[in-house]
Amino acid sequence: MPRMAVLTGGGDAPGLNAVIRAVVRSATLTYGWEVLGVRDGYDGFLNPHGVFPLTLGDVEDILARGGTILGAANRGNPFARKVVRAGKEMLVDVSDEVVARIGSLRLDAVIVAGGDGTLGIARDLFHKGVPVVGVPKTIDNDVWGTDATFGFDTAVNCAAHALERLHTTAEAHHRVMVVELMGREAGFITLYGGLAGGADIILIPEIPFRYQVLCETVQVRIARGHKSSIVAVAEGARPEGGREVIARPGDAVVVPRLGGIGQFVGKYLEETCGVETRVTVLGHLQRGGSPSAFDRWLATTLAGEAVRLAVNRQFGQVAVLRQMQAAALPLDEVAAHVKRVDPECDAVRTARESGICFGDQAPPLPPLPSPTP
């Protein structure tokens, strides 16, 4: 019986369990393959008990469950594994051990669900002879070549609902509410969530902002009779000529953790513009909980495509979404680029035309009062 393994790498995202379920059901019921689960990303191949059989019973009730029953590891890079030897911390390349373990398990395919980092590792393992197929996952939606990644829709819904809830308390107390959202260097969650949640100001990494413009925008809104404002700011947003705010520095294994820009924006607006301001950081709320219906569909669809690619021995590919249809792109192409918001895209243009400020352009002056008859 041919066999494949499935692993979930990087940070967790809603929809990972839907991928695991679809892989097991499709591979087992349609193609007669055995499926193995790999615990904690690529680290599972280095653990004697990190690989185990996955049955239909194991995935019976996990479609709507958040997280991943396999676990994930966003530091599990076998090409740069952090170890301590002779009392010193160092990085070692254990990728040959991973390749050897995959060979000893007699795996005919490995399905990898992950973001740009996890898929980059999959590409490198493919070039070492591992029969890999990728499934793009991240709430940030920054994987190249796919219209959407699963997890993104759920995160956007979380952001939009939070912004919607803050409208009422902002109006009641005549405050400016600043909401910091995830996304790292990509502003998709903040752009889409801000549009859907009725934000008045949207700050994303792809459009550097000026603090003075934010103040002018709030003041113009007050002059027009709006006593409150909602600011959606991406964790990777930065002012013109400045850098993003780092909450925790990175190293050769861990990327820097972004966070804190919301506090800077809130403090500036309160101290410079004289408006009462509150800051909310959604954080990992955007990652947790049950996946949306769209993310369940997307994860299931892409996992099904990944199984077909594996069965047909089309390795080194990533199952992607193109115009609401599953398609495939080479791992080399997907891992070589990162998707970002196009500042001239329809979503940004529509937001600007509807009066939303991105912090780079001064707002128009309020209309003159109507003449007294």
Verbal overview:
The structure is a single chain. The N and C termini lie far apart (88 Å). The protein is built from 10 helices and 15 strands. It has 373 residues and is α/β, with parallel strands linked by helices.
Low-confidence stretches: none
Gap from first CA to last CA: 88 Å
**CATH class category of the largest domain:** Alpha Beta
Enumerate the strands of the largest sheet in spatial order, edge to edge or round the barrel. Answer: 3-2-1-6-7-14-15
Helix-and-strand structural type: alpha/beta
Secondary-structure element string: EHEEEEHEHEHEHEHEEEHEHEEHH
How many individual domains? 2
Question: β content, as a range?
Answer: 15-25%
**Whole-number mean pLDDT:** 93
Can you give the helix content as a percent range?
25-40%
The gross shape turns out to be elongated
How many H/I helices? Answer: 10
CATH topology of the largest domain: Rossmann fold
In CATH, the architecture of the largest domain is: 3-Layer(aba) Sandwich
The count of β-strands is 15
Largest sheet: 7 strands, mixed
Q: What is the alpha-carbon Rg in Å?
A: 23 Å
